[in-house]
Amino acid sequence: MLDSFDMLILAAALAAFATGFRRRVRLLSAGAPGGAMGSPWPRLWGMARDAFLHGRVIRDRVPGFLHLMLFIGFVLPLCAVILAASGARLPVFIAGPVSLMLDAAGIAALCAIAWFAWRRYVSKPAHVDRKSEDWVLIALVAGIILSGYCVEGFRFARTGADPLWSPAGFVLGRALAAIFQDSGFLSAASAWTWKFHFASAMLALGLAPYTKLWHAAAVPLNVLLKDGRGPGVFTKPDLEDENAEEFGVSRVLRYSWKDLLDLDSCMRCGRCEAGCPAHLTEKPLSPKKLVQSLRAEWLKKAAAAGEDGKPAEEDTDLIETVVTRDVLWACTNCRYCEEQCPAMIRHVDKISEIRRNLVLMASDFPKELRDTFKNVENNGNPWGVGFSARADWCGPAGVKVLEAGGEADVLYWVGCAGSFDDRNKKISAAMARILGAAGVSFGVMGTDESCCGDPARKTGNEYLFQMQAAQNVENLKARKFRLIMTQCPHCLNMLKREYPQFGGDFEVVSHVEFLDRLIREGKIRLGRFEERFKRICYHDSCFLGRYNGVYLEPRRLLGAAAPSAAMVEADRSKSKSFCCGAGGGRMWLEERIGKRINLDRFDQISAKNPDLVATACPYCLTMMQDAAKDRGKEETVRTLDIAEIVAGLMQ
Ligand code: SF4
Ligand code: SF4
User: Fold this and answer.
1) Ligand 1 proximity of 348 Cβ (cutoff 6 Å)
2) Of the residues 61, 113, 272, 542, which has the maximum number of CB atoms within 10 A of its CB?
């Protein structure tokens, strides 16, 4: 039971926690409205899985598992302290197993603390930084757990412990009993170590809202309140809204409170940075530093805001004060950071909102984009080829153009690359051949198909994107079909996940998913693989993999198409794959800073000695092919889309 001194400490800790919590809520409420809610049950399950059970953290096996150990080893004894302080006693039959669990959890947590301290201060991986509060918190948590053992040890030294249910306490108790034989001393030591243990636990509670310990509360909250838009889907501003002061975000308090909660949840683990293609190729962008800079700006500006949340001082623009243009335009929107972030922070949203503001409010964007925007606006494609040439490849390939009112089982969405780029037109022809041979009823929209809007939306030109999306949805709705199939993952992502914002609810699949289905249903038969290629490496497209979860089908297709070839994986693959460098509008921008991302990626793949790099995205194909040329390996390392491989083997 707690005495009056303990009660005083408890009251002080609770008061400090409540004051800090209230302050954080006030700081968050300085943000704009936002954050989509929905059914609570999936949210609660998501919080249990991804935050409490460490579903995300554990993806990084060693640090993830050890963090889980630390979490369990901290939370369980904390519950035991509360139980002991309240004077409650567990029934005898479960007291033993619970005691054993606490014993084991404490040891595991101490091992985890030792490993984290070693990593932070001895091994020092590049993505893990050090702040002075870190070692204080490490020492505090270690002190709480160690003092807990001492409390038990002194008690067991007097009373004896069950070696089965309290092995650590038993060993410690025997050791203490051997050293200190005076039972009066043991009794006093037990009481004082309890005081120390309780006071240090209360210190951690009181400090939580003011230190990095806050992540233990902020992360579960952030996961619970996660935006219902789905990963990677951008917000849709109402561009007709005459009362809107601005579009996008120019100042930190224009972010929604949920965006600010994102910033507040960052624990500086550096996982986002460890695979960021921009960061690893020496661009000035680091997703961790971006989040930390925005967080510092938010804390400064929100603290200065009045009770009504209105900035007390003239709020300054983020661009070039907190985020430079070089940082902003370096992002490929690959979502590596978001996929790895244990706090489920949406980094790409933060970047896209600033890009959107610059483009829509100030016409401020890299000069290369002027042509891209003009080309999409005038010709419905970023290449700038006349729009009337979109279906030119169809005649020679014998492909039917589905006019408005027409009907087919499959609407083949070709995409701009497959329609206008000579290299990618070969993939369209290969797809047409496969679909024809499989007896699929399909058609294309010809000149009624226009750029899906990905280059515009990803580079902040929301106005152009919304025009493209509205026009495409209207044209799609004018035809009857069961599903849309496309060979471009950027189009796939737009049509499947962003067009529902415009009333376009279609079933959309990628060409690799569709081909995989055709092979498994026996609708296409593949001839003998001639062993032209001995080692094949598949490069994951970010928009197929991380955005849409398609990892298995391309690998299964390659396995079926080339059974005698060895399938090799790059060190970075699947959800941890490395971007080709063309996403987020980077396809249309010069790469002036650092190393070229496509060369870095090609080198990672080349290290596995493949003779074929298989892709499933027109951008990836272009980037890998350019890199192979640049490295002088065009003849020894071929680059092909999976559809070309399949079409080449069809009987
Ligand atoms: S989306 Fe990709 S490029 Fe952009 S910050 Fe995240 S990891 Fe880096
Ligand atoms: S943004 Fe996420 S992954 Fe990056 S440092 Fe913060 S918590 Fe870690």
Assistant:
1) yes
2) 542
Q: Distance, CA 600 to ligand 2 centroid (Å)?
A: 23
Q: Quick one: CATH architecture of 252-362?
A: Orthogonal Bundle (1.10)
Instruction: Indicate which atom in ligand 2 lies nearest the CA of residue 292.
Output: 6
Number of H helices, E strands in the chain: 27, 8
276 close to ligand 1 (CB < 6 Angstrom): yes
503: left (phi over 0), alpha (psi -120 to 50) or beta: left
| Phi (first) and psi of residue 521, to 5 degrees | -85, 0
Q: How far is ligand 1, taken at its centre, from the CA of residue 276, in Å?
A: 5
Instruction: Report CA(277)–ligand 1 centroid distance (Å).
Output: 7
- Predicted confidence (pLDDT) per residue in 494-541, tens digit: 999 999 999 999 999 999 999 999 999 999 988 776 677 899 999 999
Which residues of the chain carry a pLDDT beneath 70?
1, 36-37, 161, 306-314, 529-530, 651
Residue of 262, 285, 355 with the most ligand 1 atoms within 8 Å of its CB, for mutation? 285
CATH T-level fold of 535-649: Rossmann fold (3.40.50)
Q: How far is the CA of 289 from the centre of ligand 2 (A)?
A: 9
Cα–Cα distance, 430 to 301 (Å, whole number): 56
C-alpha–C-alpha distance, residues 334 and 230, integer Å:
15
**Strand runs labelled E in 387-453:** 410-413, 442-443
Q: How far is the CA of 338 from the centre of ligand 2 (A)?
A: 8
Under 8 Å between Cβ of 423 and 350 = no
Q: For atom 3 of ligand 2, which residue has the closest CA?
A: 341
- Characterize the bridge pairing of strands 566-568 and 535-538: parallel
Identify the pLDDT of residue 311. Answer: 61
Buried b (16+ CB within 10 A) or exposed e, 490-528: bbbbbbbbbbeebebebebbbbbbbbbebbeeeebebee
Q: Residue ranges per domain, the chain?
A: 4-30+38-224, 252-362, 368-520, 535-649
